[in-house]
Amino acid sequence: MYYDLQINRLRALVTVVELGGFRKAAEALHITQPAVSQQIRQLGSFLKGPVFLSTGRDLRLSPQGEELLGYARRLVALNDEAVDRFMPPAGHMRLSIGVGDQLADVLPEILRSLTHGMPQARISVRTGLSESLEGQVASGHLDLALLLQPRPQRTATSHELGRIRMDWFGQPAHGKGALPLTLFTEPCTMRRRIVEVLNASEVPWRVGYEGSELVGLRAATKAGMGVACLIANGDELWDLPRTAHLDLPEPPGPIPVTMAVSSGATAVGFVRSARRALQNALHGYPFAE
Questions:
Q1: φ, ψ of residue 287 in degrees (nearest 5)
Q2: Does the global pTM surpass 0.90?
């Protein structure tokens, strides 16, 4: 049988301790002082002993009260985090967006445009591989995501914003033998496209580096660990050397850039504002004609 601690009792305990008394806690919680005392007594019943050894000027918790306080603080914080996620303050909307790693440099412009179009929105951002972000949109953990991949299969609503050219970057430190590649870990649509292109051209290759984050892949490419296939302005964005003097096929692509939208965030005005913000932010990127 489980005992329900009730958040209001735990909040009363945390508030009494943080403000240093029952009266101040009652004022902060907008309840009466007897009500605060009652909640603390109920916690005492749960502990089968006193929560406080002293409740006067010298406010002191019992050893069990000290231990319970640690749990109370964590539970109250988690409760408030969940409430804040699903019930933002009146007049505000909560907007969570994802941006694929290779497009993350446009984040300042995206945030500037979204803030201008939706000034009351509270925005949170995640970056990562497009495949991972697509899954978070499909599950409702993200409202929308800017992805570098073909039209998502798991989300009900998506909009193609154009197709970006790709290119080869990096000069391997060791030029003999199979071509070393710096690749994202699976699952990765871009990785599969790169491998397909090289296999079709019969270029022998091997994995020189693989990782799940762009920062690591860029570092490995700069260090000469292999050749990477990235968006065609990678030299301007990240100071990557373009691949030269290697007999490589045309890079895969152009690769679609898509905006995936969660089924819970399909209001026409929202989608229109978000699409405009993303398109403005991507101005100047190497889109195919």
A1: -80, 145
A2: no
